[in-house]
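Troubleshooting: if your tokenizer reports a length mismatch, compare against these two reference records.
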Amino acid sequence: MHPHPFFGLLAAILAVIPAWRVVSKAGYHGAWSLLIFLPLVNIIMLYVFAFSQWPTERARTP
């Protein structure tokens, strides 16, 4: 067996963990970070997260 599947899985895990943390800190459910694996959807969601008002921001606004 070639080590390539292991490295692919490792890369996927290393990409999801920080994305999960960022999305969670923004106030969304961490599972949204799994969208980074869907081509084109990941770019769209990056812009949605970047330019929308996050739930944590809404909670701080008086």
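Reference record two:
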Amino acid sequence: MVSIEPIELEGHMFTAVIVHLPKTTLLTISNEIGYIMCGALDVQLLNTRLADRKIIAGRAVGVKTIEDLLKAPLESVTTEAEKLGIVKGMTGEEALLKMI
């Protein structure tokens, strides 16, 4: 099952997507600039093989809900995210607010 819901942070809208798969759940929150995602995100792939796409993204591990994803510290971020001031250790919510 796939669920999509709006998320409002400080007056800015984002889209949360939850994909329920066997034995795991994929979580992402995005806007037109970038996104944060659960541990399934391969930041190294985005920084190397897909570098020409200049993807702005961050990864949090150990999250099970959208609320967890907003509050968890990012474990890794893309090079393009770093250019916006998004750094490892900031919360998902802090990272999203840098994407506005």
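Descriptive notes for reference record two:
- The first helix runs from residue 43 to 47.
- The chain has four helices and six strands.
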